[in-house]
Amino acid sequence: MAIKVPTVQRIERSDVDGIINAIAKDGCCIVKNFTDAATVAQVEAETRPYLDADVPWKGDLFPPETRRCANLAGRSETVREKWLVDPLIRACNARFVDKTTSNFYGETKHTYTSEAVCTIAVTLEIGPGGKAQRLHRDDKNYHVDHPDQTKTGYQFGTDVEMAFMIPGVKTTVENGATLAIPGSHLWGSDREPKVEEAIYAEMDVGDCWIMLGGLYHAGGANRTRDQRRNVHGLFFARGFLRQEENIYLANSAEDVLSWSPAAQKALGYTLSSPNIGFVGFVPPLQYLRGVPAEALGDFDPSQEKQT
Ligand SMILES: O=C(O)CCC(=O)C(=O)O
Ligand SMILES: [Fe+2]
């Protein structure tokens, strides 16, 4: 039986309800006219020095042809002050990632809402010859147990993360457009994604790709000789997925490096498997010691390809 390949919906940015409905149904959509070419060009200028200075990744997480601009929101004023705070992004996060609960505080019932926060902002540029990533769910980092929702339809609240990816160039099947399986956000954790089920989310400059943390996707292969495919990614997660006490701002590098390895680990100065807590793609203790990213490989051996 032929595999039924789903399609991705393309929706104007003014149709916020349409966008939210598409994301609930398919786990993703492409927003038309999210931004304009002049803003994209500004972000290109702000990120280019960092992309050009980046070096190949040594592990399996990214092909060696990929270049990154980590700390994108810190480095690009345009990304931070225009896209990160865009009302459409806020509206999507409010529907899919913010969390509201009520409970009693003594005799009074209190209701609290924790708003989504940006968990990573990064530009990913796939260079000529870059191989495709493996299909994955970004929320693997947050250890989400996905129930099978293929029969019930999407239950709001089952995702803890979502992503907004804005292309710096027109993305095509040839230059590494993101691969994705619309509808796979509904799959239970034990279902394996197949490349034959995936579509390419080809985008024009000005578009934005939105996907839930539970959607299977991957950076595509760049089969061109001379095109660099950059995409600026803003990823948001539940605002409470962090420590209650922010001691990272309270202790000096020198103090932290003098602590025992067991204490450093217990206080969160190592990574949570697989990918949580790095600085510029360097684990925190190595970062504090000044170890450069090029000296390191994958964060977690469990990510290596099984042979
Ligand atoms: O580059 C892309 O299109 C997607 C990258 C991605 O999925 C990732 O690095 O997690
Ligand atoms: Fe991803």
Automatic annotation (TrEMBL):
SUPFAM superfamilies: Clavaminate synthase-like. Gene3D superfamilies: q2cbj1_9rhob like domain. Pfam families: PhyH. This is Phytanoyl-CoA dioxygenase. InterPro entries: Phytyl_CoA_dOase-like. It comes from the Eukaryota.
